[in-house]
Amino acid sequence: MSDLALYRRLIRQARPYWLHLAVLFGVGLLASPIALLNPVPLKIAVDSVLGTRPLPHFLHALLPATVLGSASALLAVAVGLLLAVAALGQLQSLANKFMQAYVGERLVLGFRTQLVQQAQRLSLSYHDSKGAADSLYRIQQDASVIDKLMVEGIIPFITAAITLGTMIVVTAKLDWQLALVALAVSPLLAALSRLYRPGMRRQHRHIKKLESSALAVVQETLGALRVVKAFGGEARETDRFAQRSREGVAARIRVALMEGRYGLLVGLTTALGTGAVLLIGVQHVRANVLTLGQLLMALTYLGQLYDPLKTVSKKAATLQSYLASAERAFALLDQQPEVPERPDARPLERARGMLEFRGVSFEYDSDRPVLHDVSFVVQPGTRLGIVGATGAGKTTLISLLTRFYDAQRGAILLDGTDLREYKLADLRRQFAVVLQEAVLFSTSIADNIAYAAPGATREQIVAAAQAANAHEFIERLPQGYDTEVGDRGVKLSGGQRQRIALARAFLKDSPILILDEPTSSVDGRTEAAIVEAPPGGPHGDHHQPPAQHGGALYGDDQDRARPDRRGHEPSGRVALRPSPAGRPADPPHPDAAPGGPAGPPGRPGVAAAQP
């Protein structure tokens, strides 16, 4: 993406804050008149106190005759004007600093909020391929440059251009030849900037990728710290992080050398211009074209003339890092989800619960086929257990059903309608899911259960916990339902976390309940209680599916479905998946039902599980 295209996007991004940016721009413009006043006290001291030249016209009209005739009084005026200009400069700098911080922080917050929303909207396949650390780096690090580009980049560039124009006009009025010589270095500065910018941008892009990679190592290590400690892998993980970081250090050193060379050339170019102006200016003083005070004023203006040029040139180097970050952040915003919602998607209030997989095939990568031509039907009110070897695709069925992914071929129907025709939010409200790995948030137990229904009362939360056989252990905790569970529920055991996840699913009261090996981390007593939980948990309006491992699945009142990746029967029954013992299972009898005993009509429930 070109610099111009990036700046256009940044301006559009900052459009909601145009009023704040206008105030910041106005405060920045005050720097120009203050800069014009800076050399005036020096000129008065040289030309009017030490010499006999008259004061500038605006001061001559303001001061009384007694002051104009006294060298001491004029010196006092020069000192007073110096202090006043310095005070005005500091006040302007303070106001500018405050507005930069205020506007910059609001810009960053708004941009980060957009990125967080976008990261959640993207399909799981994007995060599977990129990793969570990449999105985290873009949100936390790359997004923070928007204030530097807008507040420290675009606005200072505009104010610097205005200051530059003002200084050119004032210097030209003093001596047009000096102004022309001073501006002769501008093409050289522009050529240097154009030469170095592309290389610096490439280097900064590379640095961002390396930093994101190093962050991924830290996140992975801390997320699996128990495994790292259990296998004594601390030194290996530290070495892995250091190796990734060393690559970043080398890249940053290279870009620092590049920026140093660029800064050196910019400094030498402006010094060349200053030397040329000094040479010509001294000759003009000797020829009485300029006074000494005017030459000193011209040199001061020259310094202020070159400041914007150096700002524009040197910031061009610094801005390449910011622009590389902005590119990455906008790339995340531009990413389209692989599971899109159709513009004409239909709403769905509450499903009856009839599910059908019709010739479904799916693969995560072209060389990783998972499901092939899978077909089966689940009637409303059915309790269905799916068993099979690890990697057979059971969790994938759940991911397709909830549209975390879309099948490459075939269709999945809910109540006779393709899932892709429903609004995503409405579709996912039809499912309460308990994943194989219980996921909790770092809040209280009550908040974790109520995550499924934010407006739930304490009585409803307790009822859901009782249905999941979690109420007893929660009550034994010092703070009960207000107990903080820690990061990812680390303060609770695996079984306790899974029971809270079950309670959360019960509270959601969705028409279809999906359990992915829900009893793998609980004891036999708790497993039996979960299996025998009343239909629909605390609400009783749909079936509670059975736990899906060991004897809980293979009880006398449960049929077994072992779907194979490749085979299906015309009746929709799932067939031919290896049994947990590792040998092929016999296909079900043609008259066999695909699920266990059905509950009351119109009360759907489905369970999928891992072995």
Description:
- The protein has 611 residues and is an alpha+beta fold.
- The model is unreliable at 540-611 (pLDDT under 50).
- It is elongated, with a radius of gyration of 36 Å.
- The protein contains 22 helices and 8 strands.
- Helix 7 runs antiparallel to helix 9, helix 7 (71-121) runs antiparallel to helix 10 (146-174) and helix 11 runs antiparallel to helix 14.
- The protein has 3 domains: 3-334, ABC transporter transmembrane region fold (Up-down Bundle), CATH 1.20.1560.10; 349-430 and 510-611, P-loop containing nucleotide triphosphate hydrolases (Rossmann fold, 3-Layer(aba) Sandwich); 434-504, Rossmann fold.
- The two termini are 49 Å apart.
- A hairpin with a 5-residue loop joins strand 7 and strand 8 (574-576).
- Helix content is 58%, strand content 7%.
- The strands form 3 sheets. Strands 2-1-3-4 form a 4-stranded antiparallel β-sheet, with helices on one face.
- The chain has helices spanning 3-13, 18-29, 31-37, 40-50, 57-62, 65-68, 71-121, 124-130, 132-140, 146-174, 176-183, 186-223, 225-230, 234-286, 292-334, 394-401, 424-428, 445-449, 458-467, 471-476, 494-508, 524-531; strands at 355-363, 369-378, 409-414, 417-418, 431-434, 512-515, 563-568, 574-576.
